[in-house]
Amino acid sequence: MKYTTLPNTDIKVSKICLGTMTWGKQNTQEEGFEQMNYALEQGVNFFDTAELYPVPAEVDTYAETERIIGNWFKSTKNRDQVVLASKIAGPGDYTAHIRKTGFSTQALTEALHNSLKRLQTDYIDLYQLHWPERQTNFFGPRDYKHNPNDAWQDNFKEVLETLQTFVQAGKIKQIGISNEKSWGTMRYLEVSKTNNLPRVSTIQNPYSLLNRTFEGDLAELSIRENVGLLAYSPLASGTLSGKYIGGVVPKNSRFDLFPRFSGRYSGPQINEATLQYSKIAAQHNLSLAQMSLAFINQQPFLTSNIIGATQLNQLKENIKSIEITLSQEIIDQINEVHNTYPNPAP
Question: Is 53 a catalytic residue?
């Protein structure tokens, strides 16, 4: 395994992070335990979860993923071997069954304390805001379109002040953001510096061969301001495993079980780009999944690559990507496809 640190800290984390969002829906507790055991054996010490998980978010499975992780901590006594990240859900119709109060002090306090209880721990190493409260282009829309009727009020300072109380109480160590844009990230950094409040350490955003939009303003921001990327959906919901090439939808795959999730990673350009990437991988005796992950692992702005799997054999393949270094020839071939089909997935 290879390691880095959470930016501006001495907290060592594996460059492969174990994603958990299928546990409690597509995966049982037993399977979640199996994945955590295997990942830890392979040197993966960084786990990412959220109160929202499992996905799709539904009332009857709310926060089941955190409960599974908490039960594993209790069973194995391995809490001290794991750097644990979790998130408070942002506002919206999708999360109305959780709460409707955004990132108010009451909401943050309720969310954190409930997560700590479910996770059976006294602290969370990295506590993240799952997506912005304001209306902006996250979760799919390509371009920002301003809504003058957006009722959101600037509350960056209040949010950071609340998070500071959690840090001072020892309940969280660091803070992060997710599904953020350049403007929001810089506002958090500005308010933090001006008011001596906790500084954002990481940003968890989508990044894959099919969606390299992070390489715009956010990549420069990440490097110059030392805010590390936690890359999620590195295989584009399984698309970059190659299993959907040719329009095939395997039984019990994510797109079979939850067809509404397929829209973000389907379409003619996505299909063609995936096919071309698969040819590059085959030419160099790599699996498409491992080549796709290795590309991300080599990026200078990456702190950790969040991989998730429903099958243990998938997890094994994904973790082994850390052992692969892509040559400049492969990088050039990847970039040629990217230039032909730039960011086909929003």
Answer: yes
